[in-house]
Amino acid sequence: MSKELEFLSRHVVSGRLSRRDFLGRAAALGVSAAFANGLVGNAARAQGAVKGGLLKAGMVGGESTNSLDPGTWSSQVPYTLGRCWGEQLLETSPTGEIEYRLAEEYDASDDAKTWTFKIRKGVTFHNGKELTPADIVATLERHADANSKSAALPFVQEFQTIKADGDTVVITLKEPNADLPYVVGDYHLMIQPNGGKDNPTEGIGTGPYKIVVNEPGVRHVAERHEGYWGSDQRGHADQIEIVVINDSTARTSALQGGQVHMINRVEPKIVELVKRVPGVTIRNVPGKGHYVFIAHCNTAPFDNNDLRLALKYAVDREEMVQKILGGYGTVGNDTPMIKGYPLFDDDIEQRVFDPEKAAFHFKKSGHSGSVLLRTSDVAFPGAVDAAQLYQQSAAKCGITLEVKREPGDGYWSEVWNKQPFSMSYWTGRPTQDQVYSIAYLSKAEWNDTRFQREDFDKLILGARRELDEAKRKALYRQAAVLLKDEGGVIVPMFNNYIDATSDKVGGWVDDPNGELMGSHALTKCWLVA
Q: 10 pLDDT band (50/70/90 cuts)?
């Protein structure tokens, strides 16, 4: 048994076996997850990462309007590139634990209102400047400014004071927040020289790579930062490159032809075909990501809750999971929550396809005529097919859904969060508070359904301040039911993250935090010799 697991652990490190499958085999042999993970760690140390080469990714999720300002990142390419050049105080590990990055220690007061972070010494920015606590303070101040357009503002607006004290940074909150370590680990909060106040789009950080080519919507190239403090763990290639390939067929062809070493978002309908390609491995990881239809609650005709309910009952979720996800996912329940979140309550009644209820609420809404839904290939894998499937199920309910296919370039800047009914995706977050805060609080910059309810806000802010877990869980349940029954988000399905890599990629570890190892594949993986 030991020799088998040691052999398999080496395959995990080389990227030829997923950690999930390895742990499953270990469990079948009666071995604990802790012991099995230890074997993987030993194998990684024994094998060691291979240094050198150009590691390339072909990705969907980039467009000409992308910026290097971390506060603006809203799609895969910007924040995958951002992981390469930037770092936060803390991160969330693949197992959901807190990892130290630019903070090497943290502590909290008993009431969870005062948090102290000890800042790592000997860290340099790409411009040669040494990282100081003042840079941390300035970064958090920039994002927490009431006039900030940062997507992190809903998380950090509860900061009362942010101060440097020797080699530490002390954050005092207006109200308690037991989840603060996850807040400062948000990917928008990349630490920049003077917080990015001078020029937030410079792309200068402390990460393992520094940017040398930045062509939004086309390609991005970065080279190893020789002064990187964590070079034993990350930044193994001499250079990394992201090629923006929004077309699914072209992206798959680039991997098959050897032009790139990894791709994100393999469409479920071609997974079995890709599995047959020599030298290519499918990386299938269940997570918290979900695909959505979003209606603006403050814009006619979607300001009528009966119409929103009609549209929710008109989705055949089971059919969509099978035909769009190919079974690589689970049905949604019109909230962004799924089992796996802390304090998740799974006794909320599951909404199902119900033509009678859909027709009832549609008639009650008083709306006549068609409903326009905007979609695009970049909204999520199979989005156009999902829109057409939705169109068919809605027709069974007496609802005419008009589908408009939008171009990929510009979709995230001109359609999502602007047009009243469109399709999108969310990658999920480590905690419920973060999910609700970034997209559903009334004043959130990314409140893409315009769901603006004071009673909902009170529930989320109340849960954030509540230190009793049972009471927090009850508040989150109330919030989920309110959003499910009155919100503008339709969540038909939670998707697995399906990526693919060539056999030249080593160091892959399944990460349920997002695509391409939670956007860390380029920083943590290497090219095998």
A: low
DSSP string, 259-302: S-SEES---GGGHHHHHTSTTEEEEEE--S-EEEEEE-TTSTTT
Mean pLDDT of 74-91: 96
CA angle, 354 then 356 then 361, to 5°? 100
* Helix, strand, coil % in the chain, rounded to nearest 5: 35, 20, 45
pTM: 0.85
Tens of pLDDT, residue by residue over 13-61, are 655 666 667 777 777 777 666 566 556 655 654 467 999 999 999 999 9
Residue 64, token pair as written in the block:
């000409």
For residues 335-362, b (16+ Cβ closer than 10 Å) or e, as one string? bbbbeebbbbeeeeeebebbbebbbbbb
Choose among 206, 197, 189, 190: nearest CA to 128: 206
Handedness of CA 438, 443, 448, 453 (dihedral sign): positive
Beta strand pairing call for 280-285 and 421-426: unpaired
pLDDT at 45: 47
Residue 450 burial (CB count, 10 A): 17
Residue bearing the bigger pLDDT, 117 or 3: 117
Q: Cα separations (Å) of 314 from 29, 182, 273, 369, 394?
A: 45, 36, 32, 16, 5
Position 48 scores a pLDDT of 77
Give 100: exposed, middle or buried? Use CB within 10 Å, 0-12, 13-18, 19+.
middle
Q: What is the DSSP letter of 489?
A: E
**Considering only CA atoms, which of 487, 484, 491, 464 is closest in space to residue 475?**
464
Is the pLDDT at 109 greater than 50, yes or no? Answer: yes
State both tokens at 204: 């200068």
Burial group, residue 103, by CB count within 10 angstroms (0-12, 13-18, 19+): buried
pLDDT tens per residue across span 425-444 = 998 899 999 999 999 999 89
Contacts of 436 (CB under 8 A, 6+ apart): 336, 460, 479
- Is the bond preceding residue 301 a cis peptide, omega within 30 degrees? yes
Cα-only R_g, the chain: 23
Q: Give mean pLDDT, residues 243-270.
A: 96
Phi, psi dihedrals of residue 354, rounded to the nearest 5°: -145, 95
Largest CA distance in the chain: 69
Q: Which distant-in-sequence residues (6+ apart) come within 8 Å of 207 by Cβ? A: 83, 84, 85, 86, 87, 190, 225, 228, 234, 235, 523
Rounded to whole angstroms, the Cα distance separating 473 from 469 reads 6
In angstroms, rounded to a whole number, what is the distance separating the alpha carbons of residues 193 and 435? Answer: 28
Place 7 in a pLDDT band, splitting at 50, 70 and 90. Answer: low
| Side-chain-side CA neighbours of residue 174 (13 Å) | 10
Q: What is the pLDDT of residue 9?
A: 72
- Beta-bridged to residue 132, according to DSSP, are none
